Amino acid sequence: KHVLEALKNELRFVLITSSATVVADCNAPLDASVTDVPGLSLIVKATQNAKCERCWHRTADVDANPEYPGICVRCVENVAGPGEVRYYA
Prior knowledge:
Number of helices: 2
Structural class: little secondary structure
Radius of gyration: 15 Å
Strand content: 5-15%
Order of helices and strands: HEEEEH
Largest sheet: 2 strands, antiparallel
């Protein structure tokens, strides 16, 4: 497994982006850009998701909770729930 896979969903925090996914090199799309790191190719693309007013991440779940308009489910959990648990970033 690639070392980046260990970060799971926290990879997006390390890369300071709204979303990041690791796929096996053999499954990399043909339009992926090859990097100087052996076995690492990248695709960077904009999302159409709304931006959370609290964390500024762009996710599909912004406004999912009508009691907390303008923020994502992760931020609702951090504001009104027990909060998220992070292990790496």
